Q: What sequence folds into this?
């Protein structure tokens, strides 16, 4: 028996040793990419950081590959991290040559951890990973050449969506006229509408921001847009963008109890919900917590899980065994769980011999909570101000009266 | 002794006056400088009902990427592209509109991994290309895969 225990202890220690010898390495680089405009003869100095996430001693070699490999001057080609050093900066400088080929010129500055006696202890195979900082230079194409991006403006509004389309002219000639076309698709890939940006012009090596607005009857949901720009008879490559309008929301339309309900029986609730989000909610269920008026929990029960179609309605069924429940008023918290989110609603609950009725006190969902916290912050600030002013006034009066008393005492002594 | 107390009183009152004026101001707290959080949380200090938060790629704020009215003192943005931004707060006091000087911040890409045993995990803020002896694999954010023996390079996709 004793021998078995010893073996167990040994196995445990061996397991622990193996676990800790699975050496965790963590290395990072930021920014991972630097893009500069092409200006032949221009000199640049760029800084990036190498991050030692593991916070252990580490040695790193830095080297350069790519188009400008022989022109890049590194401030460091070797770094030694102490255990408490989280990151170190490295600079490099270069002059842009005039003989680069049109298009994207890429140079990579690579940081690789040097193997130490400790570095790969316990690793089952030997694999080393380096991280790369990319230097991108966009060398202009002969003629006209435009690329676009597509961005949505965060406005918090749900009745319109604003788009921003930066157009970069990477050609050697100016673009006289450029216009963006944005096709908008719904969650099921159906095309909803097309919006056009205003027209503009953009000089060689410069950028213009075109704007467009999608207005109309927009349901909250996830959408995606495909965009191109047409410039002086040419067309850019297509770009795509997924964007949200509004926030996921579920509305409680009705809560019904079975018509033949009698107090003491099992009550069947039909909870009718409406999905206000233009995308299917895959896992929705309701949890009901019933409290007495003095906040003692009576019962907690939940419905089955159901999906609700985009902008659709769905009934959830839940059961409450009312055996031992007395007639009267209760409070119910209805918690809706949907795709990892929750929404709560407080319900006034009246239980009678042959019915259970719910009515809304007021919504206490996430929005209300966040509003409370900001209100608290504001009232705290005001309160802090008032307290400070009162403290100041009191100190002033205290010193003033003490001085007056002392003056009186000293004048009395003279007399 | 009394003189000392008077001096202290004056100092305290001055601090109070400064605090009073600070409470009238809006101070932009974060983000500032270089950040790697692609959905930055904008935080400011102020004691007003409503703020207009503006974020743009240039100081002119001609085409803002965020233009929202916020009732609290913070706003968590959706994902921003990597690059340089400016942000400011516009607020109203006694029917007059004021704005705070813009603050610059840069959202930087971050390529990083953790390596446990034979498993590599992308812990950066961007999908990355993992280039190794057998070719190129796209390693999405937080994705973990097992590695074969060899030398690899991880770079922004």
A:
């Amino acid at each position: 028996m004793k021998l078995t225990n010893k073996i167990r202890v040994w196995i445990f220690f061996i397991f622990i040793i193996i676990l800790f010898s699975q050496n965790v390495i963590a290395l990072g680089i930021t920014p991972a990419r630097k893009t500069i405009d092409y200006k032949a003869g221009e000199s640049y100095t760029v800084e990036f950081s190498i991050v030692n996430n593991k916070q252990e001693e580490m040695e790193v070699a830095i080297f350069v590959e790519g188009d400008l490999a022989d022109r890049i001057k590194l401030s460091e080609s070797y770094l030694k991290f102490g255990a408490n050093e989280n990151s170190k900066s490295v600079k490099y400088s270069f002059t842009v040559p005039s003989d680069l080929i049109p298009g994207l010129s890429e140079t990579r500055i690579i940081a690789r951890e040097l193997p130490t006696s400790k570095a790969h202890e316990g690793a089952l195979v030997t694999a080393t990973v380096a991280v790369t900082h990319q230097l991108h230079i966009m060398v202009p194409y002969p003629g006209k050449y435009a690329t676009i991006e597509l961005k949505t403006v965060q406005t918090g509004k749900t009745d319109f969506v604003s788009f921003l389309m930066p157009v970069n002219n990477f050609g050697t000639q100016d673009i006289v006229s450029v216009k963006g076309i944005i096709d908008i698709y719904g969650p099921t890939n159906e095309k909803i509408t097309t919006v056009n940006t205003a027209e503009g012009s953009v000089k060689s090596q410069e950028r213009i921001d075109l704007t467009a607005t999608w207005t109309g009857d927009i349901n909250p949901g996830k959408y995606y847009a495909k965009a191109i720009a047409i410039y002086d008879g040419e067309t850019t490559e297509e770009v795509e963008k997924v964007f949200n309008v509004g926030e996921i929301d579920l509305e409680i339309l009705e809560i019904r109890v079975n018509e033949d309900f009698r107090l003491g029986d099992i009550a069947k609730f039909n909870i009718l919900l409406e999905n206000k989000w233009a995308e299917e909610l895959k896992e929705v269920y309701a949890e009901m917590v019933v409290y007495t008026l003095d906040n003692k929990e009576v019962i907690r029960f939940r419905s089955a899980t159901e999906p609700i179609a985009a902008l659709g309605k769905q009934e959830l069924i839940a059961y409450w065994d009312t055996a031992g429940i007395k007639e009267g008023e209760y409070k119910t918290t209805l918690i809706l769980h949907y795709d990892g989110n929750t929404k709560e609603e407080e319900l006034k609950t009246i239980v009678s011999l042959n019915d259970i009725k719910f009515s809304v006190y007021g919504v206490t969902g996430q929005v209300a909570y966040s509003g409370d916290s900001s209100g608290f912050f504001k009232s705290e600030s005001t309160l802090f101000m008032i307290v400070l002013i009162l403290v100041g006034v009191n100190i002033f009066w205290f010193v003033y009266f003490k001085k007056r008393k002392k003056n009186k005492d000293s004048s009395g002594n003279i007399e | 002794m009394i003189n000392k107390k008077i001096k202290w009183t004056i100092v305290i009152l001055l601090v109070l006056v400064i605090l009073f004026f600070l409470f009238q101001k809006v101070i932009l707290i974060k983000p500032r400088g270089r950040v790697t959080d692609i959905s930055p949380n904008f935080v400011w200090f102020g004691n007003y009902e409503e703020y207009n938060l503006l974020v743009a790629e240039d100081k002119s704020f001609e085409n803002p990427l965020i233009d929202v009215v916020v009732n609290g003192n913070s706003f968590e943005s959706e994902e921003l592209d990597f690059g340089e931004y400016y942000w400011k707060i516009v607020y109203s006091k006694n029917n007059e509109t004021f704005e705070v000087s813009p603050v610059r911040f840069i959202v930087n890409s971050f390529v990083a991994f953790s390596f446990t045993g034979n498993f590599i995990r992308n812990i950066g803020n961007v999908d990355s290309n993992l280039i190794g002896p057998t070719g190129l694999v796209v390693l999405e954010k937080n994705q973990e895969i097992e590695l074969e023996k060899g030398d690899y390079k991880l770079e922004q996709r």
In short: Helices of chain B lie at 2-24. The radius of gyration of chain B is 24 Å. Residues 2-107 of chain B form a domain with the Immunoglobulin-like fold (CATH 2.60.40.10). The longest strand of chain B covers residues 83-93.
